[in-house]
Design brief:
single chain, alpha/beta, 7-stranded mixed sheet, 7 strands, disordered C terminus
């Protein structure tokens, strides 16, 4: 399966996919990495692994629709079968959504705590268990159909940083397992993998 991975930051989820793709028999390969800004560690990881990369920065376009169209065109130029939003901190618009099947990971057990502060929100609400979710991307914010989830216990004394680090470990494994499972399907659809 041909993957385009979208990143905004350090690229630890991307690195998990790069490592998995290097394993014999892994059924997917990363054909490109896209970013929303220059100078991300995620793009550096791609370059280091010999993976083509591209940057489509929102500030260089007249409006959101123009950025969305440019991002859709950049993605399409690599003919991916699946797009992976791996820490990509942008809401995708109609041009991208209509042109690609996209999955995303989120550091909470959706539908609880969607949005940019899932870990902080889980701690603020005093939950004892949170986790990570892999879901299909739709036009909402973390509202697409859930593919799979993994739970992470909230420990006494957890800070946002300590809890997020434990969630990230599960999130990386979850993403690799979901990509592996989706690559084994003959047709991608809005259905659960497991």
């Amino acid at each position: 399966m041909r993957l385009v991975v979208l990143v905004s930051g350090s690229g630890t989820l991307l690195q998990a996919l790069i490592d998995a793709a290097g394993e014999p028999g892994f059924p997917a390969r990363i054909v490109a990495v896209g970013a929303d800004r220059e100078g991300t560690l995620g793009v550096e990881r791609a370059v280091g692994a010999g993976i083509p990369s591209f940057v489509v920065a929102p500030g260089t376009y007249a409006d959101r629709a123009a950025w969305d169209a440019a991002l859709a065109a950049a993605i399409a130029s690599y003919s991916p079968e699946l797009v992976v939003s791996a820490g990509f901190m942008r809401i995708l618009g109609p041009a991208v959504l209509d042109g690609s099947r996209i999955i995303n990971t989120h550091p909470a057990l959706l539908p609880s705590f969607p949005g940019a502060h899932g870990v902080r929100d889980a701690l603020a609400h005093g939950v004892r268990v949170t986790g990570t979710t892999c879901h299909w991307v739709d036009a909402g914010v973390d509202t697409g159909p859930i593919i799979d989830q993994r739970a992470v216990r909230v420990e006494p004394g957890d800070t946002e940083e300590s809890l997020h680090e434990r969630i990230k470990v599960e999130e990386r494994g979850l993403l690799v397992d979901v990509v592996r499972a989706l690559a084994g399907q003959t047709r991608l659809d809005f259905a659960q993998v497991k």
